[in-house]
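Because showing beats explaining, we let one protein speak, sequence and backbone structure tokens together, and leave readers to judge.
___
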Amino acid sequence: MKSKVKMIIWPIIYLVLIINVCISFILVFRSYYFRSIFVFGSSMEPTLKGAQERVDYGIIDDHKNAIDNLKRFQIVTTYYPFPNSSDYIGGYVHGGNNVINEDEASYKIKRVYGFPGETIRFEIDLDRYQSIRDCSDAEMYTESVQDTAQKCIKVFTKKTGDLNFTEHTIKFKRKINVHRIPSYHEFEYELGDDEYWVMGDNYSSSSDCFSQYPKQPIYYDNIVGVLIAIEGTCKISASDDPGSHEGTKKSYKCTERKRHFPVFY
């Protein structure tokens, strides 16, 4: 009888030990390989939450290999190179000594639309737009109007030397101000050798390449990392600790974390 009990108990003990070792390895790997970030602001709604009482937090891969192998519509964190950005004390100009002082800057979370050497183009479906152009502010963000608005704006790219544009299927949700849709029609931008086009999913309120005046790209050396997963929610609070750094200005800290099952990107 005792031998039968041992035959049952010992495999269970070994299994528990193996599981604990695996979990420990994963946690150590996550802590040392990835960087923690949290979402701050509404520019990635409805995909990511950053303007509510509790915001999303997760991890990015900030290794060169991840950045070099970016795929279209992946989500990245990026410093802005725009001299008029409010995130920089004294502004920032591309070229020369491109060193970012993280004490002064915060980085944004955006989605990559265009890559170096491509021409990016936006067009709108005029028939669909006509069907919603006169909607009221109260109707603008209803599901039916937003569904039509998202289908209105189409994204195309072509590589240098190509004659024709390729349309890209957009599978993620966007939040669109209906009355701003005409500004996208037939807009084109030719990206240079180290230039990327990034935008937030909240087309109605996002500081990004399209919303700048004049419209302009970011650069390779502005990209911090690629979003891997959102792991939970937290509250953002001010921090007096000059060493705290979790994704935005060092004066902010992600507190009261609540984990959920990771959502991978």
